[in-house]
Amino acid sequence: MDKSLIVFACLCGFAVAQFGNVGQRGQNAYARGQSQQQYQEAPQIQSAGACKELNERYPVPGSCDRYVECINGTAEEKLCPDGLRFNPNVNFNAYPCQYPNEYSCLERSSLQPPQPTEQCEHQFGYYKLGDRVNCSYFRNCVSGVGYDFQCPEGLAWNSASYRCDWPDEVEDCDAEAFLGFRCPEVPESRELGPPAGFRFYRADNNCQKYFLCVGHKPRVLFCGKNTAYDEISGTCVSAEEVPACPVEIREEAARARLEAQELLAKEIEFNALTTKKRRYCQAQAVAESSAAVAPAAMRSSMCKSKNGYYKAEASCDSYVECVRYMAESKTCPDGLHFNPAAVWPEYPCAYPSDVPCVGRDATQPAQPTADCPHQFGIFKSPLASADNCGQYRQCVGGVATEMVCPAGLAFNSDSGRCDWPDNVPTCNTNVFLGFSCPNGPDGNYKYHGNCFYFFSCTGGNPRLLQCDQGLAFDAASGRCVDEDRVDCKIDSVQPFASTAQVQNTSPTAKYNNICTKKNSYYKVDGSCDSYIECIGNVAETKACPDGFNYNPDAVWPQYPCGYPMDVPCVGRGASQPPQATADCPHQYGFFKSPLASSENCGQYRQCVAGVALELSCPAGLAFNPDTNRCDWPDNIPSCNTEAFLGFSCPAGPNGNYKYHGNCYYFFSCTEGHPRLLQCDAGMAFDPASGRCVEDHLVNCSSGIVPIATQQ
């Protein structure tokens, strides 16, 4: 029963992790992909008296989606996109328009008129699809375009909470008809009353699926791979122990159990003194004579040099790595290619755009996820369109992050790179850039709103270019000149080589006294992760992603955000509220893994965009949660150093001791604490002398009893 409750809790966490913050995803989709055309009315400049503070937002009385934004004391009335509500409680650095489930309208009742499309009731929103029997489908509307999704099996879309939920928690879902199961009636005892606890029932058509009955309503749960629900114990056990499972499932579970036993036996055989859980792959010790590095018979024939990489024939992503003449076949992560030009020990896998697979045949089968065609790669975003060509999707570990090309560039799915929009056949260059080249000779034209940029027309195709540092675009001469010669405050200058007026589609730049130096960063008082970026003389307030701190030492244009362990926040105030997920306390950072223990101290968790990646420290090091770095295990109070390293220092003086299984490593004992060290390249540990010597002087195949180095 305990195991079932754990599965129940895990599935709840999965539902929240996958769909618990759809408003944030929608907000990000809006912020990345939209332009000023979504504001239904032109911004209205208010009097300075409307601003109680220099930088703040205020609701417009009587409206749910209008607000006043003050920037440097200048007020501007704005309107949220159709379907979103203004939330006055968000941080100023965050986007203030959110979904109705994230902020109630309360007394402010009026909304802008809906802007429905054939697919959507509003431009933005989440809407249920299907009926009381088909409850798992829903639609996400972004700019009036509908994207249909389905909740994980067994969960239903809850229109009230904007998330996938247990079907019995969804008012307009018939849980029994949706799941195809009705909880049996359980007789009540006259003496004891109704039965206590939950009740579980295995599904008739799937031995790995079972139902949890809560208040006479069913919820569906699933056992893990190679396990099935056992009605006798009320838990998930190995499928080979459940007669109700089909033969092929029971045979697969039996094979998995045997493979696990064989793997464990090999680990014990090859690494008897090392903790089993660490699974650190050590190079197999080879017999060496006193006159040679290794006998030719013991070397792999593939290893032409001591350390290096070699491509595998007929494969784009497989390769052979040689470490001290020992060969091991490896495969790059799904979506990456092996780079034959890689020099050991640099990482040999790269994106296909950097390493095309020419004449090397096939790759491993794709491992797609709901958002990514491969685990790693750069792909066209489903949010991109002919008018919005700059958006693309980067997949890391099967998790998609929406990205945007630099200003003026569009994503080219053929090359996997940001490119000139006129080189991308699917991109409507003129609409994307908001500019059309006038008829006549080629020339350069003013980009309204930023005098450091300009349009260059060649063959009727516009490209957005930037002047070099210290220069600004002079529309009169049609070229970049010293910026002191250009009055960037003038909004309308006749373009060079043109008889037509250039279309102005960008907001007017605002100058202020914050930018004392062009192209620079400035800290925000009272904040660890907010900063001001000046591009030219135009200031913009920004915030680092959750989990990063602003680095005051960053020099423009390098990225100004870093991990707290590299950029401590001392005397600079607070950070933004955490944006935790089911697996990560912050969107980015390094944290202690829940899989780690006092005997398995080397494992830690890296969070990237709220997705956790399990990693391990280098051999002999443990993760220190106080510093968020890999450290000596004896520096970490929660780590059992002896159990973690599989070695205890003997009583007596300090000394160095043989590490069985690899003569290039050894244990060094100081004040009774062991540390695993490695000899320098070309050296091996000699137990007789207790130090590293030239490796041809050590017979790595012999078992010499380690002795302490006299101190």
UniProtKB/TrEMBL annotation:
Record carries keyword Repeat: yes
PROSITE patterns for the chain: CHIT_BIND_II (PS50940)
One Pfam family matching this protein: CBM_14
Superkingdom field: Eukaryota
Domain Chitin-binding type-2: 48-107, 117-175, 180-247, 300-359, 369-429, 434-490, 512-571, 581-641, 646-702
Signal peptide: 1-17
SMART domains: ChtBD2 (SM00494)
Any one GO MF annotation of this record: chitin binding
GO CC, any one term: extracellular region
UniProt KW keywords: Chitin-binding, Disulfide bond, Glycoprotein, Repeat, Signal
Protein name: Chondroitin proteoglycan 2-like
Gene source species: Trichoplusia ni
